[in-house]
Amino acid sequence: MRLTRVTLAVAAGALAPALLLSTPSFAAGATTALAATASDTTPGDGSPYDDMDIHDLRIAVLRILADPDSGKRVTKEANALLDNGTEEDLRSWLETGYRLARFEDDQVAIFTILAKPSSGKGVYREATEALEAGTPEAARAFLETGYRLAQAEDDSVAIVRMLTDPDLTPAMRAAINAVLDDGTPEALRHFLEVGQYEVDG
User: Which top-level group of life is the source organism from (predicted)?
Assistant: First the structure.
């Protein structure tokens, strides 16, 4: 079942984990992903954290905490572990808990993107697919690369539409064609946010 805009808007507004699982298809996918993740690491897997003492484990958690990309759930759990976590608690979280906490934060971030009035069809399509995939990898891939590319697709459409303006000046037409020739996500976004307002004539 496809996620509807109403469901997405409600979930993004509340930003609550319970609402992140508000649709049957998404809940089923997320539940399966969480269960699979929880069983990913076993004692025989040779985790890189196996040989770390509590000092090294705390440093690993601190590095995650210092990452500006860390969301509320990751920050909350990391701080709790640094305050009261045992060596085994720290190791377990680094092996499995961190991935699950980041998955939750990533889902919230995607719902927030979907709630933006400026999000276009490309962003909506790719974000919805990432959520319906129900895996940490899909959510992270969207935030790291998919969102940028989908936004560029939407930006290209918006800029091309500007060419249909009958009152378009030669200078603006030249600027639009130049940014479309460039085609990079950064150039497209900069033009819409800043560049178009700097064109003379």
Answer: Bacteria
Q: Which domain holds residue 57?
A: 5-116
Nearest one of 103, 125, 102 to 113, comparing CA atoms: 125
Number of folded domains that form the chain: 1
Question: Does 128 reside within a domain?
Answer: no
Q: How far apart are CA 65 and CA 88, in angstroms?
A: 18
The share of the chain scoring above pLDDT 70, in percent, equals 77
Distance of CA 118 to the CA centre of its chain: 16
Name which of 114, 126, 193, 178 is nearest 153 in CA terms.
126
Select the more confidently predicted residue: 41 or 143.
143
The answer to whether residue 12 sits within a structural domain is: yes
How many residues are present in the chain? 201
